[in-house]
TrEMBL record:
Residues 1-19 form the signal peptide. Residues 26-116 form the Lysozyme inhibitor LprI-like N-terminal domain. This is Lysozyme inhibitor LprI-like N-terminal domain-containing protein. It comes from Asticcacaulis endophyticus. It holds the Pfam family LprI. InterPro entries: LprI-like_N. Keywords: Signal.
Length: 122
């Protein structure tokens, strides 16, 4: 009976720890660093999508410009994925792979957002 109680306490403690958000400023474990990198990328991707929609709306009256934007964005996604895949490649199979891949995507996504923001400012 004591074993089951001990096991229940361990499982509850582990699930409580997992439910808490890591401190991304002071992340110490690879798992926390991976979670934080994923959050950073989600933020960057959401901002890129917001700006992309604004640019698309701005260009909407010009069908050719809109098509060029769509083509450029699709090609940029391929570039981002290939570039970051190459950057993360040395970490394939390791616990850092996801973090390196996602951190690369975040950086390129932030840069792309800045580029598209420039279109809005013209």
């Amino acid at each position: 009976m004591l074993r089951y109680l001990t096991l229940a306490i361990i499982v509850f403690s582990a699930s409580e720890a997992a439910a808490q958000s890591p401190d991304c400023v002071n992340a110490m474990t690879q798992a926390d660093m991976n979670i934080c990198a994923d959050r950073d990328y989600a933020r960057a991707d959401a901002e890129l999508n917001r700006i992309y929609k604004q640019v698309r709306e701005t260009l909407k009256p010009d069908a050719k410009a809109t098509q060029l934007l769509i083509t450029a964005q699709r090609q940029w996604i391929g570039f981002r994925d290939a570039t970051c895949g190459l950057e993360a490649y040395p970490n394939t199979g390791g616990s850092m792979y996801g973090m390196v891949l996602t951190t690369c995507k975040t950086g390129l996504t932030d840069a792309r957002t800045k580029d598209l923001t420039g279109i809005l400012e013209r």
